[in-house]
Amino acid sequence: MAKINLLTKDIYNRIAAGEVVANPASAIKELVENSIDAGATEISVYVEKSGTQLIKVCDNGGGIEPDDMRSAFMSHATSKVSCVDDLDNIKTLGFRGEALASISAISVTEIVSVTEGNPACRVVCEGGYIGKVEPAALEKGTEVSVHNLFYNTPARAKFLKSDKQELSAITSCMTQFILGNPDISFKYYSEGKLLLQSFGNGLDEAFAQIYSYKVISQCFKIKAECDGVKINGFVSNQNFFKPNKSCQHLFINGRYIVNETVSVAVKVAYQSYTMHRQFPLYVLFIEVPSDELDVNVHPNKAEVRFADNHKIYHAVYTVLSNVLDGTAKAADFVIESGVLPEVKSTMPQKPLVAPERPKEWEQMPEKLNKKPVQQPSVSPFPVQEVPEDLINRDPVFEDREKTYSLTGYYGDKDKKENKITVSSDPFDINAVHKAEKPVQEEISCKTYTYKGSLFNTYLLYEIGEDVYIIDQHAAHERLIFDKYKKQMDERKVIRQGMLVPYLFGVSSEENAFIEKNIAVLREIGFDIEPFSLTSYRVNEIPADLQDINLKEFFDDLLSDINELKSINLTDVLRDKIAMKACKHAVKGGMTLTKEEADGLIADMNGDMGLKCPHGRPVAVKLTKYQIEKMFKRIV
Fold it and tell me: pLDDT tens-digit profile of 252-265?
C-alpha cells in the first residue's frame, strides 16, 4: 500500500501560507509590494481589528487583465518571472507567485481591478476556492480586500499577538514602505483613523513625515559610491541618538532588509561616539549589481545574501566613518537636505497659558519668602514663583559657611547633649494639604560614640566592641530615597504646568507602547497627549518631580524596544527617585561636624545593614577581635 501522498491544493496552500503569511503585517507587506510592482504612485491601506477582520489595499497601478484575474490566485503564478535566468536578475519586490494564493487560502479575498481599455472586473476567492469573474465598478488600478484572515486556521490564529501589538507591526511595516518608497504617496488607516501619510515628494518629505522636520537637522544626508556600492540616505550626527534600534532602516536595491553585515559596519563607525544603550538613527539605501545579491534566501524576503560581505562592510564603514570624523572626503559624501515646511500638529491644541497657582499657596503665611524655581539647563521647565517652604528640596551642603541640618534631612537639632529632634518633612506637599502640625519624636544615640572621619567621607563610630565605618553619602542617599519613596507611594497627584510644552518624537513601536501606557503616565502625573502622527506633547509634569529630565525619562522608558511590553513604570520612577536622592545627598569629601554626623546616625535608627538605592553598603563593621588580630595581638 502506498505511503506517500500527493498533497491536495488546499493543503499545500495552507502550508505555504504558514511561511508567507505569519500575521496581518506580512499579508499587507505582500499586497503593497504587488501594488509597487504594478507601478502605483498612490497606495492606500485600510485595516480593521488590526487586520484580522479586514485588510484593504487600493492602488492606481496598471491593474490586472480580465483574463488574468483568476490566475492571480493560483500558486506559482506571476507576471514577474518567465524563465529561470530571470531569478538571477530580480528587480521586482515580488517574484515567487505565492502571496495571493497563500493569503486567499486562509481568508476570503476579493480583487477588483481595471486596465486601460477594459471594463473593471471582480473575483472572490474563499479558502482557496476561486470564484468566477464578474463585472465591477472601479476607475483605475486595483483594490484587494482580505476578510477574516485565518478564519479557517484557528491553530494559527491563536498564536497571534494582541490587537495593539499586531497593529504596531503593521504600522512598522507601513513606516518601512513610506521611507523605502519616497516617490509614492501612501495613506494608512486603522478603524477609519489616519495613522500615517506621505505625499510622494521625495526622501526629505517622507523622512519628515515619519521622524519630524526637526530630526533632519540632526542628521547627515549622504550620497556616495565606494567600491561599486552606492549608498545614500540619512544618518544621525555624532550627538543625536535614539534609545533603541527601532529607527534603523536598511533598503538594499529598494527592498527592506535586516542584514548583520551592514548593522555591524554602522555600529563600528559610530563606536567612538555612542554610549551604552544609545543607537544611531539611519535610513540607508544601498544599491549593488543584481548578480552580486541573492534575495531568494528567505520565505518573506527579509534577508539577502551578498556575494562579497567584506566589500559591503568596507563600503558602509568607509563612508560613515569619514562623514562622522569630518575628514576631507566627507565633503564628497554629504549633501544638503531640501527646505521643508514645519510639520504642524494634527491634534486639537490646548491654549498655552501660564499655570494657575495652587490655592494652597494663597493660604500660606505671608512672612514666607518667595523665590523662582530655577530651570534645569537640559529640560524646558517653567519658571514660576513658588513659596520657599513648598519647594521640594533637601539640605544639600551648598556652602561651608551655612549651618547644615541632617536630622530628618530637614529638621532642627535640639541643643541638649546627645539628643536630636526629628520633625516630619515641612516641605511635604501632602502635609501642607492636610494642614497638620509636624509631629515630633526624639531619638537617642547615647550608645554611639563618634570617633571622627576618614578622608571627609567615612564616619567612624564605636559601638561597644565594634567599629562601624559609615559612608556618609550612601547613608544620606538611602534616607532621602526612603523619604521620597514613601512620598511617592502615599502621594496625591499634583501637576505642575509647563510654560513651554515638551515635545518628543516616536517610532511606530514606541508610539504603540506610549498609547498603551498613556493612562498610567497620566496617573503618575504627566499630562501627555498626541501632538502629531509621530510625536507626543507633555503639558504638565508631577509637581514632586519638577527637576526630572524629561528626555532622559522617556529615553529610559523606551530604552529596549524588545522589552517595551514588560517595562514597569514604577521601576522607572524608582530609578529617577534614586537619582534625585543621590543628587541631594551629602557628598563624599564634605566635612561634617560631630552634630551633623550624629544626626545622620540617629536618622538611620541603628540600622547598619542599609544599602544605598544602587545596592552599595552603607556601613562596614570591624570587631575588636578583627582589629587586634590584624595587629597580631591575637594569634
Answer: 988 898 889 999 99
